[in-house]
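STRUCTURE:
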C-alpha cells in the first residue's frame, strides 16, 4: 500500500500518517489523449522491455486496471507536481454520554505543496497543511463542575503542519516511505510555544503475490497532554481481489474496501480511527491545559475523477464512537467524556498541476 494507489484509500481519514502518505502520491502522469483511437481488444499490451502498458489513446488508458494505470502514471510523472486538497466535514449533534448537553463538530482541511521526482523510483514531497475544527457545545454545563461556567470548554482549534516525506516505489519489490512532521495545534489564543508537536514516521511493504502487498509502519510523535511520545504501529495492506475490487489500509490502521466499476469512478466503504490533540487557551476554563479528541468512524464514499489530475469525493458516514479527554496544565487527567454516535457528511476536492 505504499505505492501510488495509497492516496485514494487513506487521505480521507485525515490522520498524520495519512497526510504524509498522500503527499507522496501527488505526482501523476499525463494521459495521451491526442493519439488516434486504437482498436479495442481484450488483452492489454505490455512492453517487454519496460514492463509498462502500451498506451496510444485515451481508450487504451481507460481500459487499464488500477494497478497498470498507477504504473503508467508514475512512469509519466513530471519532474515537479504541485498538489492542492480541500475537504469539509459537517457532523450532526452528538449527545454527551452520561452528561447533559451535546456537541456539533465542523472541520475544514486544506493542504498544498510540491512533489519532486528524484529518480524513476523515488519522489520527495513537502506538504503544508492547515486544519480548523469548530466545536459547538450546547447545554454542557456539567462536563467539569465549576470549570465551564459558560458551557463552552473550547470552541475552535487549529492545526498548522509541515510534512516532508520521501517515497521509494519499486513496482516489483520493496516500497519504502519515511518522513517527519512538525505542527502547531491549539486554540487561537494558546501560547504558540506550548502548541508545538513533532515526530516522524516510516513504513515499508513488499508484494507477496502480484495482487497482494503487505507491510507495516510506525508513527512516533510528541504529546501536548502528557509527557513522553505516542507510538502508533500501523499495518499496511493492498489486496487487489479482482481488477475492480480492492481492500487496503485506511486511516490509522483501518480498512477500505473499494470498487472501481469504470474509469473515473470509485466507490468505497471505510472504517478508521482519528485522534486530534489541542492546547487550550491560557485564559480559558482550563488555562493552558489540553484536550484529546478521539473517534472511530465508518463511511461510504463516491469519487469522480474524469482526469488523473482532478477528483471530487462525497462521503456520508457516522462517528460510531467518540471521546474527549481534558488535561490540566500539569498534565493531570481531569475528566473524559464519551460521545454518542452521530452522522456526518463530507466533500473533498483534489487537484494536481
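SEQUENCE:
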Amino acid at each position: 500500500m505504499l505505492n501510488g494507489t495509497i492516496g485514494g484509500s487513506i487521505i480521507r481519514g485525515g490522520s498524520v500518517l495519512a497526510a504524509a502518505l498522500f503527499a507522496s502520491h501527488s505526482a501523476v502522469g499525463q494521459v495521451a489523449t491526442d493519439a488516434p483511437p486504437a482498436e479495442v481488444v481484450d488483452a492489454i499490451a505490455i512492453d517487454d522491455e519496460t514492463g509498462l502498458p502500451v498506451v496510444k489513446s485515451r481508450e487504451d488508458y481507460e481500459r487499464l486496471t488500477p494497478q497498470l494505470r498507477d504504473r503508467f502514471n508514475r512512469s509519466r510523472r513530471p519532474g515537479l507536481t504541485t498538489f492542492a486538497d480541500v475537504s469539509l466535514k459537517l457532523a450532526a449533534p452528538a449527545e454527551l454520554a452520561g452528561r447533559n448537553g451535546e456537541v456539533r463538530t465542523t472541520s475544514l482541511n486544506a493542504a498544498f505543496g510540491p512533489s519532486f521526482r528524484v529518480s524513476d523510483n523515488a519522489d520527495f514531497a513537502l506538504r503544508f497543511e492547515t486544519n480548523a475544527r469548530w466545536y459547538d457545545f450546547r447545554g454542557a454545563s456539567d462536563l467539569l463542575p465549576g470549570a465551564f461556567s459558560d458551557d463552552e470548554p473550547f470552541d475552535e482549534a487549529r492545526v498548522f503542519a509541515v510534512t516532508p516525506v520521501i517515497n521509494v516505489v519499486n513496482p516489483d519489490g520493496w516500497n519504502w516511505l519515511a518522513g517527519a512532521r512538525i505542527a502547531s495545534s491549539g486554540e487561537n489564543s494558546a501560547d504558540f510555544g506550548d502548541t508545538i508537536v513533532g515526530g516522524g514516521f516510516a513504513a515499508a511493504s513488499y508484494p507477496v503475490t502480484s495482487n497482494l502487498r503487505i507491510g507495516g509502519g510506525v508513527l512516533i510523535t510528541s504529546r501536548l497532554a502528557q509527557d513522553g511520545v505516542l507510538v502508533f504501529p500501523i499495518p499496511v495492506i493492498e489486496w487487489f481481489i479482482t481488477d475492480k475490487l480492492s481492500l487496503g489500509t485506511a486511516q490509522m490502521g483501518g480498512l477500505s474496501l473499494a470498487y472501481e466499476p469504470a474509469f473515473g469512478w470509485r466507490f468505497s466503504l471505510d472504517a478508521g480511527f482519528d485522534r486530534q490533540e489541542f492546547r487550550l487557551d491560557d485564559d480559558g476554563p482550563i488555562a493552558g491545559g489540553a484536550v484529546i479528541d478521539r473517534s472511530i468512524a465508518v463511511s461510504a464514499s463516491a469519487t469522480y475523477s474524469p482526469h488523473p489530475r482532478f477528483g471530487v469525493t462525497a462521503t456520508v458516514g457516522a462517528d460510531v464512537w467518540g471521546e474527549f479527554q481534558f488535561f490540566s496544565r500539569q498534565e493531570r487527567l481531569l475528566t473524559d467524556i464519551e460521545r454518542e454516535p452521530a452522522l456526518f457528511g463530507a466533500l473533498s476536492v483534489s487537484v494536481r498541476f
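REMARK: Confidence is low (pLDDT under 50) at residues 1-41.
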